[in-house]
Amino acid sequence: MARLTLDSYEPGEGENRDSVQIDDPSHLTGVPDEFQRLWTPHRMVYIQQGQQSPHGDECPFCVAPSLSDEEALIVHRGKHAYALLNLFPYNSGHVLVCPYRHVSLYDDATPEETDEIATITQTAMRVIRSVSRNDGFNIGMNQGEIAGAGIASHLHQHLVPRWRADANFLPIIAKTKALPQLLGEVRTAIADAWPR
């Protein structure tokens, strides 16, 4: 069994700080040290299942509107399109704007759908800026698998809030992104701030 000396241990009466050894370090959970830890428990779903939908082969963007807003992470429902949080966000507040209709390409969307996607995107920008105080956005659509669309069969637009200091070495060398808020908290904040 490994033994370790605990430098930060405060000795009791008759104990010498430098000689205290611990057989079972499990009680050290939560003891501060020099390491910074990124807790991202929501990523376990992605690690264990990838982008596999919990609804099997069904399109997640077709299934989402049939669920509760909280369960589907929906922040707004319109007439032709809706907005929901990305389950695997690049940044906190990463919103997707989708038409209800199962259509894959932007040029296959109706004028009503494209108008509402644009309107929802503009409103989402204002809401996220008021909630998150971000400095900018990345907005875009990946059309087809070859262009990087994770779910190529259902049109969706990405709206990713950006902050001046949100890029560092982690995404580049560790393929790790630090997200400061849980998805449920972000959904509530954005949905509550959405104009009625």
For the largest beta-sheet, the strand count, sense and barrel status come to: 5 strands, antiparallel
Structural class: alpha+beta
Please, what is the CATH homologous superfamily of the largest domain? Answer: HIT-like
Q: Within the CATH hierarchy, at the fold level, what is the topology of the largest domain?
A: HIT family, subunit A
Helix content: 25-40%
The total beta strand count reads 7
Q: How far is the N terminus from the C terminus?
A: 61 Å
Order of strands, main sheet, comes to: 3-4-5-7-6
Rg of Cα set = 22 Å
Mean pLDDT: 79
Instruction: Please provide the ordered H/E string of secondary-structure elements.
Output: EEHHHEEEHEEHH
**CATH top level label of the largest domain:** Alpha Beta
Number of helices: 6
The CATH architecture term of the largest domain is 2-Layer Sandwich
Shape: globular
As residue ranges, the low-confidence spans are 1-9
How many discrete domains?
Answer: 2
- Share of residues in strands: 5-15%
Describe the structure.
By secondary structure, the protein is α+β, with helices and mostly antiparallel strands. It folds into 2 domains: 1-32, no CATH class; 59-193, 2-Layer Sandwich (HIT family, subunit A), CATH 3.30.428. 28% of the residues lie in helices and 15% in strands. The protein has helices at 43-49, 60-63, 69-72, 111-132, 169-174, 183-193, and strands at 4-5, 21-22, 74-77, 81-85, 95-99, 136-140, 157-162. The protein has a 5-stranded antiparallel β-sheet with strand order 3-4-5-7-6. Strands 1-2 form a two-stranded antiparallel sheet. Strand 3 (74-77) and strand 4 form a beta hairpin.
